[in-house]
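Q: How do we represent a protein-ligand complex in a form that can be generated token by token?
A: Start from the inputs.
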Amino acid sequence: MLAEVLSWCLTPASLDARRTGHLTAAVSLWSRAFRCRADWAEHEAHCHAIVARAIESCERRRTCLVLGSGLVRDVPLDRLASAFEKVLLVDVVHLWPARLKARRHANVALVDRDVTGTTDLLLGRATGLADPLARWISDPTIDLTISANCLSQLALLPVERLERQPGSIRRRFPDLGRRIVEGHLAALSRFPGRVCLLTDSEGRDVDAAGVVLDRRDLLSGVPLPAADEDWDWRLAPIGEWADDHAIVHRAHGFVDFHAAASRRRG
Ligand SMILES: C[S@@+](CC[C@H](N)C(=O)[O-])C[C@H]1O[C@@H](n2cnc3c(N)ncnc32)[C@H](O)[C@@H]1O
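Then emit the structure tokens for the protein with S-adenosylmethionine bound:
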């Protein structure tokens, strides 16, 4: 608890990230990632293997953009930094563990940015959504973009905050969650280079006997194309979130998201 409070106070996060709750969410993710590290190891190994395949498949390796870089656990940073001329780690907040990992490489830079473009709307400074990925989509040197397990997280805080906004804003964005998920996938499909997507799509509550007690869609009803690999991510063992069940997420890896989307259009 003390470590969490210190992390909240000492992280160089923007006032916006503090006001929107992103810093608090990042600190609690860091704590959970530490407690559940044994359970998450297999998931992280799957993610690294998908990213390694994506790196191999890139003809040119100038800039790599990682969206939702967080604690930089899902992506093999050493490998990315040695393969690419430049690596940009983008997240709404970067805690010290990520900052220290980035500092080990001269060609890795951190960018603190809300990739949903909802911050100004939710803080009452704009009436619509921004397009925060546009500047990178038009950068021809980005040869690999990785969306690193952020898709299912992007809508959580904005939707929660929208509930507390005046009715006029809520009425203008009745489907904000779906819009954010669809918007992220649409933005990924606009990147001209290789796009690698790591995401979860469904949460299951599973009891000690393996019985599924409940299922939740994590992507606001937005369907995904068939992935290159699917696996179970044991997010919370029994006792972490609830005493009577574990939480298991269905996770997916797309080495080449453009190819997967065009197979679906097919
Ligand atoms: C499950 S974590 C991903 C973990 C990360 N890939 C890693 O390797 O540690 C989801 C990430 O999405 C980020 N995120 C949530 N909303 C965001 C937003 N609006 N803009 C940018 N990043 C966001 C969170 O800060 C968090 O780091």
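The two ends are 51 Å apart (CA to CA). The first helix runs from residue 2 to 10.
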